[in-house]
């Protein structure tokens, strides 16, 4: 069960990463982002390609090497970093809308479950 969860979450991260590489404007529209300069686009790719692919790699490694518990915990915390950031945003501007609400719930449940199984 642990291996399936770690690999499943990694697969989601990789699928989104590949979608960003294929059609960045589609993903940006889905999550409500608009960029009119290269810095915003660079930051978007740094997060959605750079950080997410490394998070996926840590999850995959953790799935196959359960004795590396510290890495598994860190990978789970990387997943939980997103809902933590959304909680900060909640106090600054309110609840996310649409797909982002579902993402918040899934990230929280998945991250906590990963922590529990790490």
UniProtKB/TrEMBL annotation:
InterPro entries, A to Z: DUF4345 (IPR025597)
Tree of life domain: Bacteria
Pfam families: DUF4345 (PF14248)
Protein keywords: Membrane, Transmembrane, Transmembrane helix
Transmembrane segments annotated in the record for this chain: 46-64, 71-94, 100-117
Protein name in the entry: DUF4345 domain-containing protein
